[in-house]
């Protein structure tokens, strides 16, 4: 049991306020229909702004319980609710979803936006992934690129691989309104509490979970500085470069360093070149006061795991997600 306090702004739901300040309370649909966010009101006053929770049984209403996704406060209020501390406390779900849109971000990466049923939401931590369940029962894992507070739709970045069952299907056959089934959330890669500044490293579509984590950190006003390195072969492989550049432009505590490993002689590039982990070590000779978050292909993760401790990265300060390619 843990006592926490947080500020609820005028006309802000209790759930939105808790999420905004980094407290993970249970929820489902966020629109007052599923009842997953019901909590006991110990003291204080609340009201529903335009919501109509009449489907709740009178005994529930009589026990001073409220739908936190809809309830607004009209005084100081005390609630009794479960606080989700870790990813293991978030319910694993299988959900149907519909393809809302597909967009090729470059020749080899497609952004897929999925829409969940009206009464469902996927509760997850930033950086986690889901499994796409294929018709034959096989599963393919993809990281969520959207932050938890924007979960009416789900965003994924899918790289094309020759022989990749799902990626070939996504690039060649997947149409808007197609039905898919997902299972999640999964994975332990997420943002951890700390006072140390953060170095984030993405290789290729490892940008997807990094995007989720960064946008969550901005939502909760996390004060830690973030230096984000994105490693890619060529400029076109920095497929959402504008988003990362905008972070650095808009937020003083975020620095963005793209790193290209295969520069074409005709390519106009004045930034860093080489392997992305080496670019980090050129800038940071002592990592003892940093947390490192890394997502990308196994060779990149392996290089970070093997070299960063030599630069005094503390044990327990590296959080990584290795993107393995499953061909069959």
TrEMBL record:
GO terms for molecular function: 2 iron, 2 sulfur cluster binding; oxidoreductase activity. Residues 92-192 form the FAD-binding FR-type domain. Gene3D superfamilies: 3.10.20.30, Nucleotide-binding domain of ferredoxin-NADP reductase (FNR) module, Translation factors. Residues 1-85 form the 2Fe-2S ferredoxin-type domain. PANTHER family: NADH OXIDOREDUCTASE HCR, PROTEIN RFBI. This is CDP-6-deoxy-delta-3,4-glucoseen reductase.
């Amino acid at each position: 049991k843990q006592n926490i306090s947080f500020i609820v702004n005028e006309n802000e739901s209790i759930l939105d306020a808790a999420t905004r300040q980094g407290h993970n309370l249970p929820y489902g649909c966020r629109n007052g229909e599923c009842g997953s966010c019901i909590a006991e009101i110990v003291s204080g006053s609340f009201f529903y702004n335009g919501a109509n929770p009449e489907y709740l049984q009178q005994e529930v209403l009589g026990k001073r319980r409220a739908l936190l996704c809809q309830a607004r406060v009209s005084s100081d209020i005390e609630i009794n609710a479960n606080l989700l501390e870790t990813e293991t406390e978030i319910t694993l779900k299988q959900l149907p979803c519909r393809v809302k849109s597909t967009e090729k971000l470059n020749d080899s990466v497609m952004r897929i936006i999925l829409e969940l049923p009206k009464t469902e939401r996927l509760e997850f931590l930033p950086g986690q992934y889901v499994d796409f369940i294929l018709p034959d029962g096989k599963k393919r894992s993809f990281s969520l690129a959207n932050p938890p507070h924007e979960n009416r739709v789900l965003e994924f970045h899918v790289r094309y691989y020759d022989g990749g069952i799902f990626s070939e299907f996504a690039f060649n056959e997947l149409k808007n309104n197609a039905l898919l089934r997902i299972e999640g959330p999964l994975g332990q890669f997420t943002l951890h509490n700390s006072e140390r500044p953060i170095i984030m490293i993405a290789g290729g579509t490892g940008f997807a979970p990094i995007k989720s984590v960064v946008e969550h950190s901005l939502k909760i006003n996390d004060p830690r500085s973030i230096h984000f390195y994105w490693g890619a072969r060529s400029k076109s492989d920095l497929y959402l470069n504008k988003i990362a550049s905008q972070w650095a432009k808009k937020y003083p505590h975020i620095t963005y360093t793209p790193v290209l490993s295969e520069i074409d002689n005709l390519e106009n590039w004045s930034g860093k070149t080489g392997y992305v982990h080496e670019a980090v070590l050129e800038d940071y000779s002592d990592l003892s006061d940093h947390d490192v978050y890394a997502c990308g292909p196994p060779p990149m993760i392996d290089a970070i795991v093997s070299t960063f401790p030599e630069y005094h990265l503390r044990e327990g300060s590296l959080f990584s997600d290795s993107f393995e390619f499953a061909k069959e």
